[in-house]
Amino acid sequence: MSFILGITGGISTGKSSVVAVFKELGYPIVDADIVARQVVEPQTPGLNAIVEVFGNEIITEDGHLNRKKLGSIIFQSDEKRQQLNQLLNPFIRSEIVAQIEEKKKLASLVIVDIPLLFEGHYEQYMTQVAVVYIPEVLQLQRLMKRDHLNEEDALKRIHSQLDIEEKKKRADIVFDNQGSQEKTREQVMAWLSKFK
After folding, report:
1. What range does the domain containing 52 cover?
2. Which cell locations does it reside in (predicted)?
């Protein structure tokens, strides 16, 4: 019986650096961001569904999704963002579940990296959920610096997700990422030694 560890956090909380530790140690990873890109490749039902709702202007000349254009539409409107999530959810969910089933055959621990784990109600597929945590004030600083955003735009993106404090409350495991990467890595290694 495989242990399925869902890893989530907020935008810019450092989830990728935690997942990288598991990846480096050879654990199989299901990455929701990669799945979300796969389901909107040219000629896919996912991309066709988006075009039907948001129009051809979100397609580049070579038939790919224009992420910047789509982002500018959905981050201005909660309604449009929810609409996009509802459109893509069935495609993404079925692919994530299929990949979990596939990777369970390979290892006793499978890592599932899902930024919107709680928002999408993916807990049901996980044995436990780990949240990579930093307080919102630090999240805001990191996001503004990383993506060169002003405070208003950065806050819009942060508030488009479930509050990080709420995620922390719902977590089975919290990896606190306020310190150095080394400190975060130590927390992951400590959890793994308990897990084994």
Report:
1. 33-105
2. Cytoplasm
